[in-house]
Amino acid sequence: MTHTDHPRSISELTGEPPGAAHQIDHLSTVQLVERLTEQVKTLVQTEIRHGIVEMKDKGARFGVGAGLSGAGLVIVLYGLGALVAAALLGLATVLDPWLAALVVAVVLIAVGGIVAAVGGQRAKKALPPTPVDTSRSVHRDVDTVKESLR
User: Fold this and answer.
1) What are the distances in angstroms from CA 133 to CA 42, 44, 48, 58, 145?
2) In this structure, which long-range contacts are made by residues 29-33, counting pairs with CB atoms below 8 Å and at least 24 apart in sequence?
C-alpha cells in the first residue's frame, strides 16, 4: 500500500478477512474494547506516517523549486546590474553622472517597491503547506468509524 492508498475499512487496515465480522459476535466487551483500541492506534499511526511522507514529498519538491529559482534569480541580478550600468552610462552622456545615478536609483526603488508589495499580497493568499491528502483520509476514516458504530 503506497502513501496515497488508504484502507477503506477497519478489516482492510488490520488485515482481517472480510468474513471475520461473525467472529466478533463471540468476543466479550473487554476483548472488543481491546481490539478497538489496537485498531484505532494502528489507524492513527498509519495516518501519521502518511502525513509525514506527504510533507516530505512536498518539502523535497519545494526545495528543488526554490534552489532552481534562486540560481535563476542570481543570473537575473547580474543581467539587471549590467542594465543599470548601461542606463547610467547612457544618461551620463546627457546629464551629469551624479544626476544620472540619482534618476536610475529612484526608478529602481519605485519599481522594487511595487514588486515587493505585489509579492507580499500574493504570499498572503497562498495556502498553508498542509498534508491535504492525509487530512481527507482522516476525515474518511472518522466517517467510516462513525458508520460502523451505528
Assistant:
1) 18, 15, 12, 12, 18
2) none
pLDDT in tens, 106-143: 999 999 999 999 988 888 776 666 777 788 888 888 88
CB 100 within 8 A of CB 91: yes
Q: How many CB atoms lie within 10 A of CB 133?
A: 16
Strand stretches in the chain, DSSP E: none
List, for residues 31-66, the tens digit of each pLDDT value.
888 888 899 899 989 999 998 998 888 888 888 888
94: three-class secondary structure by DSSP: coil
Q: Long-range contact list for 82-87, CB < 8 A, 24+ apart?
A: 84/108
Closest among 13, 10, 19 to 1, alpha carbons compared: 13
Provide the grid cell at 42: 494502528
**Stated length of the chain:** 150
Residue 1 has pLDDT above 50, yes or no: no
Residues 76 and 72: their CA atoms lie apart, in Å, by: 6
